[in-house]
Design goal:
Integrase_cat-core; Transposase_IS30-like; Integrase catalytic domain-containing protein; Transposase-Integrase; globular
Amino acid sequence: MPRHWEGDLIKGTRSTALVGVLVDRQTLFLKLVKLHGSSAQEALEGFSRAFAPLPASLRRSLTYDQGKEMALHKTLSRRTGLAIYFADPP
């Protein structure tokens, strides 16, 4: 059952295409989120939309890298109920 997620942002050629990637750690279920920019506000809105249809039992945690697009992580946590963690840089 999906509930612990990893997230990232993929930028296409010349940063014209942006996709948020959410992968459940256990099932490898994948959600792709179309983003209109790489700002923290865009990530907040896109990831909020992606998690909204999921029941709370499937929204336990999200681990993300140190990207600036997650600057509004506290707001995302309040909106979704996710505990948000950040991976240590290599």
